[in-house]
Amino acid sequence: MEKQILALQVAHILGEEYRREWVQQQIETPKQSNHGDLAFPCFPLAKSLKKSPHRIAEEIAAHLKHPIFKEVQTLGGYINIFLDQGFVAEHALNQFFQDPEAYGTHEFGKGKTVVLDMSAPNIAKPFSMGHLRSTVIGNALSNLAQTCGYETVKINYIGDYGTQFGKLLAAYLKWGEEESLRQNPIQELTRVYVKFHHASKDNPSLIEEGREWFKKLEDNDEEAVALWKWFKAVSLEEFEKIYKLLGITFDSTRGEAYYNDKMTATINMLQENGLLEKSDGAQVVRLDEEELPPCLIRKSNGTTIYATRDLTAAIDRKQMYDFDEALYVVGHEQTLHFQQIKHVLKKAEFSWADQLKHVSFGMMLQDGKKMSTRQGKTVLLEQALQEAISQAAKNIKEKNPELKDAQKVAEQVGVGAVIFHDLKHDRRNDVEFSLEDMLTFEGHTAPYLQYTYARTVSLLEKGNFDYNNPVTDVQTESAWGLIKTIRLFPEVIEKAYKAYDPSKLARHLLDVARHFNKFYAHTKVVGSEEEQALLSLIYAVNYQLKEGLSILGIQAPENM
Q: Any coiled-coil ranges, and where (predicted)?
């Protein structure tokens, strides 16, 4: 509210040449409280107005007047605004209590659909920590989109096709053990796959065997198809255990192989549009104008590749869902691939090609190095989750041995810790896997947020807070930092979705918890003269923490 008011007044003073939206983008939040609550830098105006930033600041400040502005100062080319704390506090809480369930929601996505391609583990491989990133980032983005009014479709696009399955078939037929596969399918399939990778370094002919088996799979060879279906069935069973622990569901689970009988239409369409060219026996779409390498559509041996299936899948999804945005939550190493897909569709004159967006993210590292199934160097996600739950249970037993439903709470804390450890990072950055860092009850962790939420629940119970008759006139100065933070929730939700970056919400929740704990450490609540007003504020914190964690895909236990 206050940013809009300031932007409107500054834009009016500057004249029609300066739009309110531009002015609002320039407004900052000072890091030091003695510099005010809002700041407008006048440096970008100096060249066009041919005046010093300091003089511009003084001239604009002289005309700024509003009941919400307690004081207006200028300092070194900045206009610093000190807000009326009582006015802002009452307005923020009134806005929240008008409809708590609607607080933070938006309608700019109303009537629009977002399709999210997310998670996408490969069958016959372990669900590693590397797959966690796509899964939890995609789920959080879906929740953010829904909070902004969008309809969402979460698609788990299983990796169940490609040359790696030819290698796996060859590896299993050479070294696989049927009994081991039945008892521990993913472990056995991983064992033979890793063995194939190492053996092929000394025996390159194995690579050709893998290609031959993939060609058999494409040609519907009975033995190849039967083994492939078996590998897929046991893999999906194992994946479902992970998704259940994470509390994540999908609207569609569909593998790449679903598009096998649909790719011919895509290839024919590219041919009819004059886009396919021969290159060393293969078929490609050239992208010279975009300064990109050619997009390979069909190999010289007649087999298709990932790009062929992704083009087909994009066309199919547009026809099925008529999406307004299609988000591919996939690691940054696939950036070139998605650039090629988008430009091939544009060359084929699909007007919606620009609706495809690659939401890239960094790698999950172990000891500073990329995890790799082929190298046999990876952390299994199910193992990590179970270890996190076990450690959480141990922590809870030490801190609160009488806690009811301790195992359920341990699951909420352990799983939440793993999810939040990922989401608190800017998605573009790499993340170092560390169970110890995830589970501490202090610092930037989910347990810290969950513990803070449980504390607010306890305070509301002790104070017998009257949810139906909140008091919004909070006069305690120690609450100002907390009030300034919680009122940003709607803005944070919008920014987090538009940037496709859940870490903006994660960091906001940490700020809320930090300000709340600082406020609570210096303020008596239960039994004070302002008890009901302070409890009203605490309920706003309570609701925001629970809702924010829920959007991130994390549960908030009421007792810890």
A: none
